[in-house]
Design brief:
alpha+beta; 2 domains
Length: 351
C-alpha cells in the first residue's frame, strides 16, 4: 500500500502520528498554547484520566480547564508544520507506536485525534507526511538484505524449530479459547490482546544505516530496555506475505480464520468499543504456505488497533506487532556476528 494522507487518517496509530508531528513543533507561543489545549481536551476524553496533583498552593481552589476538541483543533491549526526531517518523522512514529495499548480504552489523545474537529488539522499534516522523502520506505515490503533480530537485555533466543513453535501456538490457542469460554460472561476478565504469530519465532526488522534495526525503537508499549543484542539475519527463501493494510489483513483472516472471541472479547472490546465475534489468522496454517509475514509501516499505521470487518466471520484487528516487523516461519541463518547495543536517553548506540 502506498502511503497517502487517507492511509494515515484511517487508523488510530496514523492519526496519533500526525498529532505527534505537531506536538514536536519548535517551542513558541503557538506550540505552547496547543500543547496546553491538547492536554486538557484529551484529559476530558480519557476514561482513565488520572489525578491532578498540586505541588504547592491551595489545591482546593484549582478548577480543571474545560477545553473542547474544537478549541484544541483551533489551537493546533495555528501551529506551523515543523520541518519534516527524517529524525523528526522517526520520533513521531516511535511515539505513536509506544503509546499503543490494546487491553484498555483508547487514551484521551487517541480519542481526540479521532474527533471530527481535528480532521481538517490532521489532514494537512497527513498530506505533508505522505509526501516527505523520509517516509518513502514506509510502504515498502520486506527488505531481505538488511534484516536483524533484536534480543532484549540478553534474553535467550529460542532453540526450537519454527515449525514446532507454530504447531504449539495453535494447540495453546485452542486451550486458551476453551479456558476463557468457561468464563465468557465475566466482563471484568482480561486476556491475551495480541494477534501475532508465536512470539518465540524469529522476527526481524530492516537495518537503517548506523541507527541499527528499526526494531530497537519501534516497539509498542516498550518496557524501557536499555541494552539489546542485535543479530543480523540472512532471510530465508520463499514467499513473504505482505500486510500492507486492512484489506490484506482481512484476506488473511478469511483464508485462515481462527476464532478468538472468548479470549479477546473484553480486551479488544475495550480498545475498539465493538462487541461481537473476533477472528485472527491461524498462524499454523499460514506457516504452511509462506516463509514469513511482514507488516509494513504504512500497513501498521492504517491497520493497528482498527476494527477490520470480516463480514459473517465478525472482525479482527492488528495488535502487538511492530512496524516493519517480519515473523519467520522458516529457519533463519545468522549472517554476521551478533552486536551489543545500549540506549543513551532516546538513542541506541552500538558498543
Amino acid at each position: 500500500m502506498t502511503l497517502t494522507a487517507d492511509t494515515l487518517l484511517a487508523g488510530p496509530r496514523g492519526r496519533r502520528l500526525c498529532l505527534e508531528v505537531l506536538r514536536l513543533a519548535p517551542d513558541g507561543p503557538e506550540a505552547r498554547d496547543a500543547a496546553w489545549a491538547v492536554s486538557w481536551a484529551a484529559q476530558a476524553l480519557d476514561e482513565n484520566p488520572g489525578t491532578v496533583v498540586a505541588i504547592a498552593g491551595d489545591a482546593s481552589s484549582f478548577t480543571e480547564p474545560e477545553v473542547s476538541p474544537a478549541e484544541a483543533a483551533a489551537a493546533l491549526a495555528r501551529v506551523a508544520i515543523p520541518e519534516l526531517t527524517d529524525a523528526l518523522l522517526f520520533t513521531a512514529l516511535s511515539l505513536a507506536v509506544d503509546h499503543a495499548a490494546y487491553w484498555q480504552p483508547p487514551s484521551g489523545e487517541d480519542v481526540l485525534a479521532a474527533t471530527e474537529d481535528l480532521q481538517p488539522v490532521l489532514e494537512r499534516v497527513a498530506a505533508a507526511v505522505a509526501g516527505a522523502p523520509g517516509t518513502s520506505w514506509w510502504g515498502s515490503g520486506v527488505e531481505r538484505d538488511t534484516q536483524a533480530m533484536v534480543r532484549w537485555e540478553n534474553s535467550p533466543a529460542s532453540m526450537e524449530a519454527p515449525e514446532e513453535l507454530s504447531a504449539r501456538w495453535r494447540s495453546e490457542q485452542v486451550e486458551e479459547e476453551v479456558s476463557f469460554a468457561r468464563q465468557i460472561d465475566d466482563v471484568r476478565l482480561s486476556g491475551s490482546w495480541w494477534s501475532t504469530p508465536a512470539f518465540a519465532l524469529p522476527r526481524s526488522t530492516r537495518v537503517r544505516g548506523t541507527a541499527g534495526p528499526v526494531g530497537l525503537t519501534l516497539v509498542e508499549d516498550s518496557w524501557g530496555w536499555t541494552s539489546a543484542r542485535v543479530r543480523p539475519l540472512a532471510a530465508p527463501d520463499g514467499e513473504v506475505i505482505e500486510i500492507d493494510g486492512p484489506e490484506a489483513w482481512a484476506a488473511l483472516c478469511r483464508r485462515h480464520p481462527f476464532p478468538v472471541t472468548a479470549s479477546r472479547r473484553n480486551v479488544w472490546g475495550r480498545t475498539t468499543g465493538r462487541e461481537g465475534m473476533w477472528m485472527q489468522p491461524d498462524w499454523a496454517a499460514v506457516a504452511g504456505e509462506a516463509a514469513g509475514v511482514h507488516l509494513s509501516v504504512s500497513g501498521y499505521l492504517a491497520t493497528a488497533g482498527r476494527v477490520v470487518g470480516l463480514g459473517d466471520l465478525g472482525a479482527s484487528t492488528v495488535a502487538g506487532w511492530g512496524p516493519d516487523e517480519t515473523f519467520w516461519f522458516s529457519p533463519v541463518e545468522q549472517s554476521a556476528p551478533e552486536q551489543e547495543w545500549v540506549r543513551d536517553g532516546d538513542t541506541w548506540n552500538r558498543v
